[in-house]
Amino acid sequence: MLSSPSLRQWQYLVSLAENRHFGRAAEACFVTQSTLSAGIQELETQLGAALVDRTKRKVVLTPLGEDLAGRARELLARAEDMVLAARAASVPLSGPLRLGVIPTISPFLLPRVLPSLRKRFPDLRLFLREDLTARLVEQLQAGKLDLLLIALPYDGGALDTMTLFDDDFLVACREDHQLARRNSVKLDDLSEAPLLLLEDGHCLRDHALAACRLPPSPRRDGFAATSLHTLVQMVDSGLGVTLLPRLALDAGILRGTDVTTRPLQDGDAARHIGLAWRRGTQRAKEFSLFGEALVAALKQPGSSSTSSQSTKQKA
Known about the structure:
Blueprint: H1 7-19, H2 22-28, H3 33-47, E1 52-54, E2 59-61, H4 63-90, E3 95-101, H5 106-120, E4 124-130, H6 133-141, E5 147-152, E6 159-174, H7 203-211, H8 228-236, E7 242-245, H9 246-250, E8 259-263, E9 270-278, H10 284-299, E10 312-314
Parallel strand pairs: 3-4, 3-5
Antiparallel strand pairs: 1-2, 5-9, 6-7, 6-8, 6-9, 6-10
Helix pairs in contact: 1-2, 1-3, 1-4, 2-3, 5-10
């Protein structure tokens, strides 16, 4: 029977791949440098192959070492899933949960739901990471995050998703803009003023373009905003019009500005807010429960309603 490396040894390899330095890798694993170095050497002996090229200046993983480090990340993530799934079987949503959230959702949704979630699940330790969708998906697949709260649809590979609610888009313009005189706005009307968007990398940009039936990378003159708050300030300065999600409007993003909104008549003018997790995780039921609790928190008195709050599961 083959002698299998321990999870600890795989953890050493992953840490070395991420830090590219024996000292920093050892510090991340809370062991001495000599302990980590010996663990890597033992791993190489067990496998009968070199995983690391050691030089005086830097640490370079061999092609096999890089490949095995990637597989080890998945292995460690699944091992952690099994431990947390066993814990959740007795007390659901207790212990740590690393949640990644995109910046066009986080400041507008989380303040409305976190107090209720804390009250319902007092033993839940929620750690939040805000970033763009692509980077959050990368961290999820690497086992650094457990769950994502993002806008759908998003092609993230081997993910399972749960749609929570639809977040309508509205046309935003200054109160003295000609579009403000109308009860609603047609897609063709948006050609009357520059359409301001977020920078590339924000999925809200792609969803807004899809709502306007525009290509993914239209040619635009001028600037792109780095956040929804910056986008609102650009509109307030008379630089153009934009599409804003209902979620941000309900949170008061237009407060103190001369910007108003009008509904969009045609197009699929909404994004879908939902959860995403690694396909095959042992914690899928627990994550579904988290999504149901999040929607229930939105329905509580004092929390602004969303356009649609029915949940549905998609494998």
